[in-house]
Amino acid sequence: MAERLVVIGGDATGMSAASQARRRRGPDDLEIIAFERGHHTSYSACGIPYWIGGEVDGADALVARTAAEHRERGIDLRLGTEAVGIDLDRRRVRTREVAGGAESWTGFDQLVIATGAVPTRPRIPGIDADGVHGVQTLDDGEAVLRTLERGGARRAVVVGGGYIGVEMAEAMIRRGLDVTLVDRGEQPMSTLDPDMGRLVREAMEGMGIEVVSGAEVRKVLTGDDGRVRAVATEDAEYPADVVVLGLGVQPNTGLARDAGLALGEHGGLLTDLAMRVRGAEGVWAGGDCVEVLNLVSGTHQHIALGTHANKHGRVIGINIGGGYATFPGVVGTAVSKVCDVEIARTGLKESQARAAGLRFVTAVIESSSRAGYYPGAKTMTVKMLAELRTGRLLGLQIVGREGAAKRVDIGAVALTAGMTVDQMTALDLGYAPPFSPVWDPVLVAARKAADKVEAELRGH
Amino acid sequence: MAERLVVIGGDATGMSAASQARRRRGPDDLEIIAFERGHHTSYSACGIPYWIGGEVDGADALVARTAAEHRERGIDLRLGTEAVGIDLDRRRVRTREVAGGAESWTGFDQLVIATGAVPTRPRIPGIDADGVHGVQTLDDGEAVLRTLERGGARRAVVVGGGYIGVEMAEAMIRRGLDVTLVDRGEQPMSTLDPDMGRLVREAMEGMGIEVVSGAEVRKVLTGDDGRVRAVATEDAEYPADVVVLGLGVQPNTGLARDAGLALGEHGGLLTDLAMRVRGAEGVWAGGDCVEVLNLVSGTHQHIALGTHANKHGRVIGINIGGGYATFPGVVGTAVSKVCDVEIARTGLKESQARAAGLRFVTAVIESSSRAGYYPGAKTMTVKMLAELRTGRLLGLQIVGREGAAKRVDIGAVALTAGMTVDQMTALDLGYAPPFSPVWDPVLVAARKAADKVEAELRGH
User: Fold this and answer.
1) Among A166, A415, A453, B32, which residue carries the largest CB count within 10 Å?
2) Per-residue pLDDT tens for A193-212?
3) Is there a single domain that holds both residue A108 and residue A176?
């Protein structure tokens, strides 16, 4: 008799796992049932800001593989079906049909928990007002567009200055709105050090975005029609016809916790390298509902990113399928942009390095995306952290224009390999005038960092 | 009394070495004399095609640091002065003034040989005709421009399908000429495998460039005015008002050989990791006149690239300056473009891997520069070579549009670190829809390569 795999969650991790397992094991060997609460599968939540901004034409474009395509591949996909309980002892999952509420049990041999994350929503007055939106699901995206399209929206307030926040600020600008970004941090993009975040802030202000830092939203104010009209911090009110929440997400692990599975300090499930949930035979988890090991700090983090979710799903599916794969961890790479300003980071920022017990030097340089004389060359700022004594690369941050963001991949690979900044000065990176100065900006930063490591060793 | 450093060659390696040494040792401690045959220092030969193509405004833009700037930094720079002999026993260099011919001896304690390379010029009839040009020096660039600007030039023949060849083809197209590229190889860009070179060929043909492969130029035909009028291969004649030679370069090491220094099998000087010439105390060399160790094949190569020359100069200057630096070798990275087609390679191509005694699998995939739904996403083809059994990355080739070339840096770092393609599938590369699909094209290739390594292990 075939083994049965049950997947909870029909997005990146769940459906990648199902697809990979199916590729390796036919329906006679492995039955696959996937439950998804919503009505879409395998979609790119990361693309929602660009859809709202009008650069992507409709939600369908964001769907990588439809329900029908999954079913054609022999996956019994049940949309509109929410998992409401996991019984590990009897190896079964309780589900409820969202429309109707009918509940039933489904047994499993293997279980993949891919329940994702839920957006952080501050518990403040007015948060549920008409015109206040998260941007995590396709339904959220549709709701934002409805608010924008009913007309009259002129002013947007974006709450939160992280990736979603800056990307939604761009989307609102593209929609022709006046944009205010309200952020708790010292500078926007708190995944960067403040000196690099300041560059993002200045660039955003140059685009006409009002950036309010160090401010917490206390209240959402509504008009008589129930629609949002402003956002209030302790000190000020910011008029708003639409409010977008970009306050990050938290692992959606209530179901797992209720089933008795242990959660990490960030509320995510903890897995081993094969993505098996710790202490639960035949139970796997990945994506936004797990914590991942940061290979540089040696600590676990919660990082909600589609690229990790896809990798997790692939690893789970290969392993269930009888192959062998592991997910060793992350180095904390993330790239984003706001209009033409590219933002990238990998490894640890200063406060993270200190929290990990590391001591380090920092190097900040300005260089050019192309040979200085080549048309379109743009300045970028590169910051590098290197460990004292060993000179090991600890982190890389880049803010610039075209050609800035993906240069962070050089640092991501170097971090994975445990390279020193001195070793990095000799890296054989691609050089031609349209693509790089003769010393790539990352090499210029490595040179400066290596010099500072050496100077520290000498105790100058 | 101060030590004396003599530098032969005032371009990237020579002047980088001089500058680095000067930064670390003042004039009282180190006298620096640099001889340069020409009239320019520290210029970007790689930029010449873009200057000729009209994208760079004048030769001055290509000069990174002028003679005056070097002199201000305490370097006794003597332009128009050619080194004609090296007397290692008596530690002195014989020089001749290009204008006038006066010769003299200059003693040295430390000597840097940075004599660069000379372009390959086939010994065929008509090769010295008016209108036939190399493109290695700023003087060459001026000569090409004079030929173009005297009017009437409609047809260009570019001889050689390597980097210079394809870049000059682009320049000639930008100048409005009809372009024929005549190349000996099976496909243009013979630093790529033929299947990838074919993509370059097809793209060039799509731009209206006539690409003639497998053809050797036998003769340059001239008119009564002594100007070039056509180029003849064994089989055909190609009308030409201007001919550009892009046949590569050879190490300019006659001086070194005459001084009794040993040369490698490619005619370049051989150095140790600190860039000291083997068997010659206090003699250093770098740039286009040396051979470099390819870290993947374990063999020496001659690679004329400004980025290596600059690194060599820095290493030499640091060491002469009393610091410590090494140049461990290269992995064979090179990037280029022809109009909007980007071309990149690192590591070994198939024939190189075989020649090195390696056995391998290959994986070729097509993917997208951005999320498929994001505006401006372009297809790129990625080819990966991975060693049998170990799965170690051996080479990476990419042909595509915007965003293709610099992705090769991921492979360059991974090769340096000795990563396997399986390890690469877990690399934490930057992902956001404007910059990458959720699986970066390099990761897609790594997945396929890893699958093929696994399949080979299983013996099918």
Assistant:
1) A166
2) 999 999 999 999 999 999 99
3) no
